[in-house]
UniProtKB/TrEMBL annotation:
PROSITE patterns: GNAT. SUPFAM superfamilies: Acyl-CoA N-acyltransferases (Nat). NCBIfam families: rimI. Coiled coil: none annotated. It holds the Pfam family Acetyltransf_1. Keywords: Acyltransferase, Cytoplasm, Ribonucleoprotein, Ribosomal protein, Transferase. This is Ribosomal protein S18-alanine N-acetyltransferase. Residues 37-188 form the N-acetyltransferase domain.
Length: 199
C-alpha cells in the first residue's frame, strides 16, 4: 500500500513539475523594443540552424564554433534546453542557447551570438536577461557560462548583470585552445543586484 502511495505521489508530483516547466519555457513569439528598435523575439527552431551557424561565422571570423550537426539535438523539442532568437525584417540578428539542469538547479548559457552589424545595441544583454528571468521562474539557484579570456567586452556585460568570475578553464576552446573564464550568477542575490535585467 505504501509503495503504491509513493508511486502515485512521485508520478503526480513529477508530471505537475514537468507541466510547470513546460509552461515556464513556453514563449509566445512577439515584437520587443530594445533601446528604441523593434525586434521579433521567438524560440529557436531546427529550421533556424543554418542562419545561426551563419551568425557564428560572422562573429568568429568565418569559423563557426558550432556546426549544424551540433545544433540539431539542441533544438529538438526537449525540456532541458532553452533557445531564443531575435529577428529584424525577417533577418536573424541574435540568438542565445542554454541547458537546464534540474538536479543542480543551474541554467548554463552555452552560446550567445549577435550579428556584428547589430552589436552594441543591447541585444546580447536583452537575451541573457531573458534567460535569467526563465531561470528564476524555474527556481534555479544559478546561471553559469564560459567566456573567452580575450572577450573583455562580454565579460563586462555579464558582470553588469551580476555574474562573478569563478576561475579559468585552461585550453577550453576547440581550435585555438584559448582559456575560458568561468562565470556564475547567484540567483539568491537577485534582489541585491542593481540591474532589473532590462525587464
Amino acid at each position: 500500500m505504501l509503495k503504491k502511495l509513493i508511486n502515485w505521489y512521485q508520478t503526480k508530483f513529477m508530471n505537475t513539475k514537468r507541466l510547470l516547466k513546460k509552461e515556464h519555457l513556453n514563449i509566445k513569439n512577439h515584437i520587443v523594443d530594445i533601446n528604441g528598435d523593434k525586434f521579433y523575439l521567438a524560440k529557436a527552431m531546427v529550421t533556424d540552424i543554418p542562419e545561426m551557424v551563419g551568425i557564428e561565422r560572422d562573429v568568429y571570423d568565418g569559423v563557426a564554433p558550432w556546426t549544424e550537426e551540433a545544433f540539431m539535438p539542441e533544438l529538438k523539442p526537449r525540456l532541458d534546453r532553452f533557445y531564443l532568437l531575435l529577428r529584424q525584417n525577417d533577418q536573424l540578428v541574435a540568438f542565445i542557447g542554454s541547458s537546464l539542469n534540474d538536479k543542480k538547479l543551474d541554467c548554463h548559457i552555452s552560446n550567445v551570438a549577435v550579428e556584428p552589424d547589430f552589436q552594441d545595441r543591447g541585444l546580447g544583454y536583452f537575451l541573457v536577461a531573458k534567460v535569467i528571468k526563465k531561470a528564476r521562474q524555474l527556481n534555479y539557484k544559478t546561471v553559469s557560462l564560459e567566456v573567452r579570456v580575450s572577450n573583455v567586452k562580454a565579460q563586462r556585460l555579464y558582470m553588469d548583470l551580476g555574474f562573478k568570475k569563478m576561475g579559468v578553464k585552461e585550453n577550453y576552446y576547440d581550435g585555438d585552445h584559448e582559456d575560458a573564464v568561468d562565470m556564475v550568477l547567484d540567483l539568491s542575490l537577485y534582489e541585491t543586484i542593481p540591474n532589473n535585467y532590462g525587464m
